[in-house]
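Worked problem 6 (solution included).
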Amino acid sequence: MDTLLRSSDYTQLRAFLAVAEALSFSRAAEGLGITPSALSQLIRGLEDRLGTQLLQRTTRSVALTSAGESLFLRVQPAVHELGAALGQLRQTQARPAGTIRVHSFRSAADRYIEPMLAGFHRDYPEIVLDLTLDDTVVDVVRCGFDVSLRIGEVIERDMIAVRLGPDMRQIAVASPDYLARNGRPQHPRELLQHRCICWRWPGQTRLYAWEFFGNGAWFDVAVDGPLIVNDKEMAIKAALRGVGIAFAVDSAVSTHLQAGRLVPLLEAWSEPFPGIFLCYPQQRQMAPALRAFIDSVRGQCAGGGQSATAPTPAAAGSSPRPSGAG
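Solution. The predicted structure is:
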């Protein structure tokens, strides 16, 4: 026989095993769900191809020939092992298990992943989460990730995107001490005369230009200042110490604003844009482990999230242009 079985080979061998185990064509045919004549034809085809008789048939009994017994002893364990392997795979696929590789912006991980970890691993002890937390915009598929949490503006158009939270808004903030020493800007362009805390995307050399909205369109301000960071939390801490003006998502500085440690600036030019999404490649069949992770993350959101393709630009007046929120 050929090294690799054809579909007809397997069908004939399965028929032979059924007869050899039952020593009855009628019982074997019933077990296989075919007619005795169809079963006889399969056995004859196998014997013709092998050039040897495998079964002795009489009107009252069926017995194995020496060649048939030799084949039976070799084939029966192999076919049963194959069936067991397929059964185990089906069972594994039905039970959430395995490793899920996750890429997430840090702020998204703090809000949506960290709170669900204990319950998730209690409910799914056979799932391993491999988490990479940074604000780099990576190619999810090329880098081998199963899923990513990021802002809507940097999701590839062919990805499935699930909204996790509300729209976000970036605002300029400064400490009361800084404003007492340097004055308060009245227009985003006046930031060019101020000491700003600059930020760059991790892995990039170009500084992020702060984005504002006015007269129906977004515009950039290429700020400058004494400090450049690639971590938004460090920028906020520097602003608290009076180093300069920082640009941050309002939710990240809300407690400081309420306590008066920071003061919001230029709010009339700060427009909302789509917030955090969970995204993953389109796939015909989703692994149970990935489904369990997605459902658990969505459970952290009030009311969950709705699946959609990657977000498209909003109507004029609420363009989702800002891409520096982390």
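Discussion: Residues 309-319 have pLDDT under 50 and may be disordered.
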